């Protein structure tokens, strides 16, 4: 792989940019791999990347039904933070956030990580208490966050109306090293690094059946033929239920639509990420100047990748009260992604009843921030059979009553 | 916008008038059930890409709970029916069979 650098740009500029090579190879599947990862989104590619980088397993295929990063990886609002309440969550999300800090250098691919700071507004007294508790928990977990006053909120983000009649800003949980990254670049950079290690990334290859023998996975049937494997990782977010059904086990997961939208580009007006969980809205400004807005999830099962219009109305209506200056903004695009929701709003990274088959799912509305940490833990689990990052996130925790309850901690989408 | 007909008051209700209530036809487990059944009842859920049966409440209307048969891919509604039952009515199953031959959901098909 030719490295990207300032020198490479100069070199290619001198020869009409004829020397750029494909970022990742388009390959046809071989008959057998050590590991098959189903799903070439961020989490699947990160799993493959760390399998190769940390554990030396490079005979890997990443199968993708559609196109690389075309699911939730390309549909989220790119927020990265790790201010969670429960210890296992803080550990994996903070690992992930710290990996994001150097991911551009590790991948030799600019993922445009921008640690601009994430602010979660407390707009009710319950949230004030909740976020103060989270700030204390984070201090114990070694995650650097602080609870800040409305005055500080206004200093950090002047366009907020902190005296809103319905939802005044009473304070905020502030994580200065949280931020955003370019979501597509994360998928592309990981794919390029995987391809460079000799892994096969096979797009438009839908898994149609999981083949097994004696309770052990032996391979998959796909639209590009049968492929054998020793181990298999299911990393397909909203379609986890479909793959679990093929593999013969059930999941405590329901798939619903989550929406986001962006405005027309405007001049820089906001250099932090603001989340307002009481009103189910969050907003940041992209490098192009668009205001990127995320909304609430629908309450019913849905695979359509588009959501209900009234959720957009609710989100925008509430955000206009907190950010009065956006009331005249035109919205450019709206889209939806299918998110896999667990009962405790924490992911499942686990072995499954089918030997050799692992699953990484249930990231719900907050998977993007976890991509490198999730891949790191999933790769360790697949290579060694256990990982300190993921051991709490088993499929069996529901039965055993060991919930990692972030639904109570965050209240809503997070 | 999703629209469902409330089988009790007969009104075609927008989804803003309704509250989704999750999977239908769960059998309530109680004292004496084993761990597997309890886990299944409390946490495991049907999550089909296709035909689905679910509970809805006509919150901003008559307030009654009812059931709906719906496709999660096309959002087509096959029908709504009373919640006072443990299985979908035959005419709705027949209608689904006409449109989605070979469908199955939990123990129904």
UniProtKB/TrEMBL annotation, chain A:
Keywords from the named record: Cytoplasm, FAD, Flavoprotein, FMN, Nucleotide-binding, Oxidoreductase
Cofactor(s) needed for function: FMN; FAD
SUPFAM superfamilies linked: FAD/NAD(P)-binding domain
Domain Rhodanese positions: 35-79
Protein localization: Cytoplasm
Protein family membership: Belongs to the SoxB family.
Record protein name field: Sarcosine oxidase subunit beta
Organism: Parasulfitobacter algicola
Taxonomic classification: Bacteria, Pseudomonadati, Pseudomonadota, Alphaproteobacteria, Rhodobacterales
TrEMBL record, chain B:
InterPro entries hit by this protein: SoxD, SoxD_sf
Pfam family name, one: SoxD
Protein's recorded name: Sarcosine oxidase subunit delta
Organism listed in the record: Parasulfitobacter algicola
Top-level taxonomy: Bacteria, Pseudomonadati, Pseudomonadota, Alphaproteobacteria, Rhodobacterales
């Amino acid at each position: 792989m030719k490295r990207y650098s300032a020198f490479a740009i100069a070199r290619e500029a001198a020869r009409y940019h004829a020397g750029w090579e494909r970022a990742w190879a388009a390959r046809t599947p071989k008959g057998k791999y050590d590991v098959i990862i189903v799903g070439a989104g961020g989490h699947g590619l990160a799993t493959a990347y760390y399998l190769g980088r940390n554990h030396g397993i490079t005979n890997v295929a990443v199968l993708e039904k559609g196109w690389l990063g075309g699911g939730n990886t390309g549909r989220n609002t790119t927020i990265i933070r790790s201010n969670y309440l429960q210890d296992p969550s803080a550990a994996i999300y903070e690992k992930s956030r710290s990996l994001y800090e150097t991911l551009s250098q590790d991948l030799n691919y600019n993922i445009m990580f921008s640690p601009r700071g994430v602010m979660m507004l407390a707009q009710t007294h319950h949230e004030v208490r909740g976020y103060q508790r989270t700030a204390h928990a984070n201090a114990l977990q070694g995650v650097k966050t602080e609870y800040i006053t409305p005055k500080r909120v206004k200093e950090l983000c002047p366009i907020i109306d902190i005296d809103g009649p319905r939802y005044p800003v009473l304070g905020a949980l502030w994580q200065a090293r949280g931020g955003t990254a370019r979501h597509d670049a994360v998928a592309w950079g990981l794919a390029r690094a995987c391809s460079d290690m000799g892994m096969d990334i096979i797009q438009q290859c839908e898994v149609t059946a999981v083949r097994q023998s004696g309770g052990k996975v032996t391979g998959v049937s796909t639209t590009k033929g049968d492929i054998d494997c020793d181990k298999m990782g299911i990393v397909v977010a909203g379609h986890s239920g479909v793959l679990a059904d093929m593999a013969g086990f059930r999941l405590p997961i329901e798939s619903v639509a989550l929406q986001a939208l962006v405005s027309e580009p405007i001049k820089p007006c906001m250099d932090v990420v603001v989340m307002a969980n009481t009103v189910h809205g969050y907003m940041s400004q992209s490098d192009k100047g668009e205001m990127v807005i995320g909304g609430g999830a629908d309450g019913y099962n849905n695979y359509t990748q588009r959501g209900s219009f009234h959720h957009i109305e609710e989100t925008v209506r509430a955000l206009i009260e907190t950010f009065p200056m956006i009331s005249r903004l035109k919205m450019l695009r709206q889209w939806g992604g299918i998110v896999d929701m667990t009962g405790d709003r924490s992911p499942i990274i686990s072995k499954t009843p089918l030997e050799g088959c692992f699953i990484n799912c249930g990231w719900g509305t907050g998977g993007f921030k976890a991509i490198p940490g999730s891949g790191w833990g999933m790769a360790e689990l697949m290579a060694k059979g256990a990982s300190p990052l993921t051991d709490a996130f088993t499929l069996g925790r529901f039965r055993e009553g060991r919930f990692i309850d972030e639904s109570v901690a965050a209240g809503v989408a997070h | 916008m999703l629209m469902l007909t409330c089988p009790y008051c007969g009104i075609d209700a927008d989804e803003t008038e309704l509250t989704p209530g999750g999977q239908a036809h769960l059998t309530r487990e109680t004292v004496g059930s084993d761990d597997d059944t309890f886990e299944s009842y409390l946490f495991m859920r049907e999550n089909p890409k296709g035909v689905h049966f679910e509970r809805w409440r006509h919150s901003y209307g008559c307030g009654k709970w009812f059931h709906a048969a719906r496709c999660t891919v096309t959002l087509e509604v096959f029908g709504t029916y009373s919640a006072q039952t443990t299985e979908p009515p035959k005419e709705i199953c027949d209608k689904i069979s006409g449109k989605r031959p070979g469908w199955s959901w939990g123990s129904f098909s």
